[in-house]
Amino acid sequence: MCGAFVFCSAQDDSIRSVKQSSPLVYTFVYNKISESSNIPLVGIINKTTDSHTGLEIGLLNHCGNDFRGVQIGFGNAIANNFTGSQIGFLNATGNDEQGLNVGFLNAVGNTMKGCQIGFINAIGNEFEGVQLGFVNAVGNKAKGLQVGFLNSNGNKFHGAEFGFVNLIGNKFTGFQTGFYNKVHKLSGFQLGFLNRVDTLEKGIPFGFLSFVKKGGYQSINVGVTEMFPVNISYKTGIEKLYTSINVAYGDDSNNHFAAGFGVGTFVPLGGKFAFNPEFTSMHPLLQSWQQLYSLKLNVNYRIADHFSAYAGLSVTWNHINSPADDWLIPFWSVYTTDINQQNRILTGINAGLSYRF
Predict the structure, then answer these.
(1) 250 phi and psi angles, rounded to 5 deg
(2) Cβ–Cβ contacts within 10 Å for residue 61, how many?
(3) Are residues 80 and 225 in the same domain?
(4) pTM (predicted TM-score)
(5) Cβ-proximal residues to 189 (8 Å cutoff; 6+ apart), any chain
(6) CB atoms within 10 A of CB 340
(7) 159 and 172 in contact (C-beta within 8 Å)?
(8) Which of 34, 102, 229, 236 has the most CB atoms around it within 10 Å of its CB?
(9) CA 280 – CA 225 distance, rounded (Å)
(10) Quick check: is 54 in a domain?
(11) Is 2 a domain residue?
(12) Are 128 and 113 in contact (CB under 8 A)?
């Protein structure tokens, strides 16, 4: 051995004779480093039998026990503890890991603290940190941030999730947003096109449609407004914040049908009464395209367990796209005023009956 770098065979006897301070680089097909050495490895296959601090670069890097440093290779595998960074096409840790995984596929068999960045990120037991990938999966508990197309957690998650699909097997605490969110127990805020919650502990699911099995609100409503004599709506979510899908029929010869969307809430007033403000947006479906935005200030009275009646003041803003369009003829109204040639305000009273599931 001579100079700053020595190139030697990959036999175990040669490696055992190397002192810890020797600045050696191994560049053969198989490299194995002795216990408690601090030597970088460069080769197609690198293997560490015990503790090792340094750099490994190769097609396949394997650590038999503790390793601290950086692994760079096509495949990286840690059978036990690991602290540092892994960069490669495939990263796998059999036990604990602390640090950063960057690769096409990142897998940790037990627990991890740190950050995973890859196409697929998987943690077999517990995770604390950040996961960034197309698919992020944690088998048990997770705490931190998940960002990906699909985020999945088998048990509990505390933190924030951003993805197209978010799935939590047990309890979720924090903020969750995606096209489809599913949680067994919710204690936080959901924002998505479709939300599903088995049990609501505390928090709010909000989206185009939110379905809550325990602690939720669903109802079918039939009523009359100043614009349409027949209104049917389906409401779902929770009493604190629900959404509604609405259809209506009127006697206007040009615009018989309308459809729209709404949001509302219930504020208990005591006894069987509740204040029920609601905002809806309706659009006639036939000849003239115009918008109807209504604020309904209703009082709800619970008749029985599943039935209630509601009534209250409503204010509607009617907007037409062109002054040449015809105004939608109201069913009846208390007061109407024109703001300009394209905007009109109508006030009236709406009422109806509700059946709660």
Answers:
(1) -130, 175
(2) 29
(3) no
(4) 0.75
(5) 174, 175, 176, 203, 204, 205, 206
(6) 7
(7) no
(8) 236
(9) 12
(10) yes
(11) no
(12) yes
In angstroms, the first-to-last Cα distance of the chain is 83
**Using one digit for the tens of pLDDT, what is the confidence trace for 13-42?**
333 333 444 444 454 566 666 555 555 666
How far is Cα 62 from Cα 323, in angstroms, rounded to an integer? Answer: 74
H or E element, residue 12: helix 12-16
What per-residue confidence (pLDDT) applies to 202? 87
Q: Of 274, 223, 221, 275, whose CA–CA distance to 243 is shortest?
A: 221
CB distance 233 to 246 below 8 Å:
yes
Q: Which helix (H) or strand (E) holds 208?
A: strand 157-214
Nearest to 92 by CA among 76, 103, 68, 74: 76
Is 179 in contact with 195 (CB distance < 8 Å)? Answer: no
Residues in the chain: 357
How far CA 293 is from CA of 217, 259, 343, in Å, comes to 24, 12, 11
pLDDT tier for residue 278 given thresholds of 50, 70 and 90? very high
User: Cα separations (Å) of 261 from 97, 258, 267?
Assistant: 48, 11, 21
Q: Is residue 309 part of a domain?
A: yes
How buried is residue 339: exposed, middle or buried, by Cβ count under 10 Å (0-12/13-18/19+)?
exposed
Within this chain, do residues 167 and 195 fall inside the same structural domain, yes or no?
A: yes
Domain termination residue (choose one: 163, 178, 211)? 211
Q: Are strands 97-108 and 82-93 parallel, antiparallel or unpaired?
A: parallel
